[in-house]
Amino acid sequence: MELTYAPENFESDWYAKWEAGGVFRPEINPGGEPFCMVIPPPNVTGQLHMGHALNHVMIDAIIRRKRMQGFAALWVPGTDHAGIATQNVVEKSLAKEGITRQELGRERFLEQIWGWKETYGDRITLQMRTLGDSCDWTRERFTMDEGMSRAVREVFVSLWEEDLMYRGFRMGNWCPSCGTAISDIEVEHEDEIGELAHLRYPLEDGSGHLVVATTRAETMLGDTAVAVHPEDERYTHLIGKFITLPLIGRRIPIVADSFVDPEFGTGAVKVTPAHDPNDYEIGLRHDLPVIQVLDLEAKVNDNGGEFAGMDRFEARTAVKEALDALGLLEGVEEHSHSVGHCSRSGTVVEPMLSDQWYVKVRPLTDPAIDVVRDGTAGFNPKRWENSYFHWMENLRDWCVSRQLWWGHRIPAWFCDECGDGTEAKVFVSREDLSHCPDCGGAVRQDEDVLDTWFSSALFPFSVFNWPDETTDLERFYPNNAMLTGFDIIYFWVARMLQMGIHFMEEVPFPTIVIHGLVRDEHGRKMSKSLNNGIDPMLVIEDHGADPLRLALLQSAAPGHDVVFDMSRVEAARRFGNKLWNAARLVLQHVEPGSVPAEGGYPEDPAPADAWIMERFGEVQRSFDDLCEKYRFSDAYAALYSFVWSELFDWYLELSKPALYDEATNEATVQTLGAVFRDALKLFHPAMPFLTEELWSELVGDGFIATASWPELPEVHGPASMGTMQDLIGGVRSFRSQHGISPRVPISILFTDQGNEVEEWWTPLLEALANVTMAPVAQELGAGHTRIVAGGVHGFIALEGLIDVGAERARIEKAIAGFEVDSKKANAKLSNEKFVASAPEEIVAKVNGQMEAAQSQIEALRSQLQELG
RNA sequence: GGGCUCUUAGCUCAGGGGGAGAGCGCUUCCCUGACACGGAAGAGGUCGGAGGUUCAAAUCCUCUAGGGCCCACCA
Q1: Closest CA to A856 of A798, A792, A785, A780
Q2: Nearest DNA or RNA nucleotide to A229 (CA to C1')
Q3: What is the ipTM of this complex?
Q4: pLDDT tens, A656-670?
Q5: Total-model pTM
Q6: Which of A325, A348, A510, A535 has the fewest CB within 10 Å, making it most exposed?
Q7: Which nucleotides of B are covered by protein (CB under 7 A)?
Q8: What confidence score (pLDDT) does residue A528 get?
Q9: What value does the CA radius of gyration of chain A take, rounded to a whole number of Å?
Q10: Where are the alpha helices (DSSP H) in A556-709?
Q11: CA atoms of A658 and A664, how far apart (whole Å)
Q12: Number of neighbouring beta carbons within 10 Å of residue A149
């Protein structure tokens, strides 16, 4: 073995061997109960970022542990076609060559994107392999592959048939730069300081004017009314009168609508039904004309008169200037309000009327709310359920059509012949239509595609080739858990629940584990725009995948954001080195390849062996418990601390004296091998590569990845272990404070009130503290100092070698410490209510603390006197 | 406007009714036959502030200050 841990030497080899060995397929555990999770599918042309790494490491830790526990564990990998994102990327790349998609045409543009997908589609899956994701690649899916397209079409058509899908001409969110409608959750609201312009609208009869307030002056070009509150006394006399719209000259009515808030602005609202959702509603109520003044690129159209051709922001200024010139701009005040931006492009979203496809959500959300309320599916942490309910209860119909080319084409065909003259007849079909089913004439397919999230909503069952009734579908639906970031609860989780319940009649997963975002060391969200992202691939290059994995797992407190700290990765790497070197020590005493894959604990362990077995058993139970609760950071913190501080710092040192005596070391060799092997097993879900490498040295049989999850035998260690550790600590501390080298042997005479000192202590005390011990009948005074551990009092002859002043200080400090303990305990015990109300074991515990502290103080005080 | 969340050691963060924890950093000693990517011994927090509940509060409740996030048709 190399002298130090060098992950780059073996990580990629192991991945290839696992994959070739079918380790990641559920079939590796043929009799096992299924345990399945699906990946939150990353963008097919994307790159693995730290957020993916966090998500994958947690999923992989679950899956690998379940696999070792004998489950037919399956992690289904896949990628998402990511409609807008991918189309935008390819368009941008074409733009560099001066080509637009329109010039290319739909068919050739799609060829370009498929080519792009071929080129970059492997990148992220290779990166996932580098990270160690134990996905079953034989079941890999892409949201636009044939099977999933079939599922999408089946769902679309079924929803249509059930009257849960409809086409409607409505006011929706439009992104002028992406050139498509977007759903409500794709709009990001940001608070901005804008201007509230007060405009004078002259009354038709010349009797004066009405002042309206607006943040979007350019929309006045499309005004078809002014609305006031019906009970607003300032304006009641004007209701029914008309205004001459400035700049345009249109005659528009003053209407009464209780939507208007008399408190806001002037209490009079200009109404632009074509470009504002509220105004649209008012327009419907009052039968107002709808006049579009902005085109799909958000430029003023021919209805905008002299402003035609201007961008909406340009027009905003121009309109205000023009009104000002007419003396109709009464004033402008600062106004803070929230402005919607497209989550993809950042462009300000324009409310726009258009024909779109909608999913009627209420029939889908109600059951999805119920299953969370009744606990059939639950979020972890539970508090996410509140936002889930709030969102689901207020959800509006989902606009699923997108005016893009990259995506699932909407399976609807129009026949103009069979239409009613204004609208074509619509046919929604599972099979492609080449002619009209009614008249046999020509049909044209809807040009639009579906929202990317439409296909990912089906992921938990579409990956198994639903609607076919496959064996996999039967075995792995419902999935056993979903683990993802809070940022896609609405986009993805909520919709999987709706679709899963509706089409499979069962929740897609009973448990939803939500983690946070990865932030940089200053707590800022890692993002492209801030350029503060840390590329996990570079971290792996520098430190290895295992250290990154362990660092992320240790940082991932449930439900909290993760502050990525490189020093944690470095620490995890040092831990890897520690494991590596511990293995080298173990292999000096244990025949390489001789450790059994499981069991192998001695029947008759030596005291130190029994102690570590007992401690390990306790730690393992707590570790398993924490893992089942998805508290990985706590689980691995506990394991890490046990392995380093107890197994390595204590047990390896304690085992050495026994190991060097080859005639009698059998039990210790067995313990050492078995304990170390099981420590590797527990670390395998976090550090798969390193543990596999060490397994191959230690066990050399099969993969640790498919080895059994450890079961520690029930063993009780010696009760006096703690006292011995305290004694060793006391001696070391004594040495340190007096500058006595560990090489200088120390003789200790001792009294033993609790009869704790045992024969087996002798070699261990020599090895770990370089002390020899001999019993003495009574306490020793002058010329000695005292080290107290439990009921054992050790006396060290001073022989003038140590500084009495320093020793006095040492003892005084020790006394002060015990006095704090004693006081605290005493305060509680002298409180009658405490003694009466606190649980018995707590009272007993405090009592014990009190007694222990007082006996220590007593002993040390007399020592102080003896020092003179 | 509604909701959630955070404030704990110099730094970055866990924990969450019964003696304050981790990583990094810091001090002293040690290259002892696995490991200096190491070992041993230490220093360092009245757990944002004020009330309250309780035998017991960093932990639960209320208020308060300051961060962060989400939702909302704020012309």
Answers
A1: A792
A2: B75
A3: 0.94
A4: 999 988 777 889 999
A5: 0.92
A6: A325
A7: 3-6, 12-15, 18-19, 22-24, 28-30, 32-42, 54-56, 69-75
A8: 65
A9: 37
A10: 566-589, 607-628, 632-641, 653-660, 666-683, 688-698
A11: 7
A12: 17
